[in-house]
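Students often ask why we bother predicting the structure of a whole assembly rather than each chain alone. The short answer is interfaces. A chain on its own may look different once its partners are present, and contacts between molecules only exist in the joint model. In this exercise we take two input lines together and write out one structure for the complete complex. Read the inputs first and try to guess which parts will touch.
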Amino acid sequence: MRKLKEFIVEKLILICGLASIFFVALIFLFLLKEGLAVFKTVSLFKFLFGKSWYPISEPAQLGILPLILGSLLITVGAAIISIPIGVGCAIYIAEIAPLKIKETLKAGIELLAAIPSVVLGFIGMVTLVPLVKNLFNLPTGLTALSGSIMLAFMAMPTIVSIAEDALYSVPKTYKEGAFALGATHWQTIWRVMLPAASSGILAAVMLGIGRVIGETMAVMMITGNAAVIPHTILAPVRTLTATIAAEMGEAVVGSEHYFALFAIGIVLFVISFAINVTADSFLHKRQQ
Amino acid sequence: MKNPYRTQNIAFFFLFLATLLIVVPVGLIIVIIIQKGLPAINWQFLSDIPRQGMRAGGIFPAIVGTVYLVTGAIILALPIGLLAAIYLSEYSKDNLLNRLIKLAIVNLAGVPSVVYGLFGLALFVVFFKFGASILSGSLTLGIMILPVIITTSREALESVPQSFREVSLSLGASKWQTIRHIVLPNAIPGILTGTILGLGRAAGETAPILFTVAAFYLPRLPNSIFDQAMALPYHLYVISTQVPNVAEKIRYGTAFVLLALVLIMNLVAIIIRYKFRKRKKW
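Now the answer. The structure tokens for the assembled complex follow.
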């Protein structure tokens, strides 16, 4: 009787262990099931590189290039801001901060990671957007720049915590060796610690960027949502994620628009999959 | 000749500056929301339904909706996540399957939240015909927080020393008895931390509930799990972008309640972890 019970429990554990694989596959399958139908009417090339996104005009124009460029512009902007600040903060926490401050800083970074994106979007709307508007004398502060700044904050917790882990796991002997050769603390960090932790830091940066590309609510609230190809960082843009979030509510289930939004979902899924697999392989390399 | 110590001082100054550039805005965000949101909070705001097209009244249905959604999500995610963590820490061997599972968890954690929304729409709302309902929303959020719960629980289980297991097994306990009576009780604080973090994440997410449950305006409480519901994060989105002329006080008040809910959960998780680490004797 006990044997039977244990047999059942252990099989149940195995099934749950496999659940993650099952769910990832299920997500991808259902995106494909709903999204691939759009390619009956639009070719893949026209979908990815079409210059206009007018999903409800007759006939509908379903080119997501403006959305891809919008996501790209905001992501590049956020990366430029968040990578130096995030890696710098990680070095400070890992190497320089006194022990007590270190714990407080780490808790603070965790709190930043926990703030819901809709709250960050709201704060961005009431503080950052008017600031950008006045600073550059623009008709509206809902621009790619505002989005980039806000998203940089959402990427930083990821970058800081993973990069800090990477620096922390550099063997102590490396550091002692450098000190023994007469290097200053900074020379040790710059010439020894950073190169040794480089693959982990690269993974941190990639995962941070992954977070930016996938971010939805804050972006939808502060980038202005204009589905046109952006020519400057001070213009409103619309991202892939915001398009889905803003339009799915109105799209009729089973319509071309509905399929197109799922096809954007496939694009996002593939991007995040590629980023995560690559970042994971960097982290794995470090462990060996 | 360049003085290496001066270079060091300059470098350390910039690193400190980078840290300030993160910490100060975080502090400012929290201070602004507390300063402008706290005065809006009173019993009526917390217990009344929204009135006059959400321009007056309270946010009670949104709070209740969020509580329902979070409860539903954890009912799904905790058992599956915990058992998956037990599999990874106690049963799996270092082989391809184990590697695949870990990769799947990483990917599950990385899928954009709006894609979870699409998935929930396609699977629960349309395919299973649950409609936009608390059930669909909870299931979607549950799958979304699964990686958080698996990862933290696994860490907690793996931090229980190997010798505990060996002693139990040598006394004749079976593998499951060892897990049930020795490993799990020692890992409870870590599992609790993960669960609370998962709760906080589920409470704050908006994109996954957009098409699966969230009601724009529903000035009553949901009747069953097949009913739509309002939710705090979506309500904040609606009153800050979709409805014109909402008093600033109501917006900040809503933001304050949501932020307080999420930050308190996270603080509790951090404190549990901190206490546990201090108390741990192995």
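Check your guess against this: Chain B touches chain A through 90 residues (CB under 8 Å).
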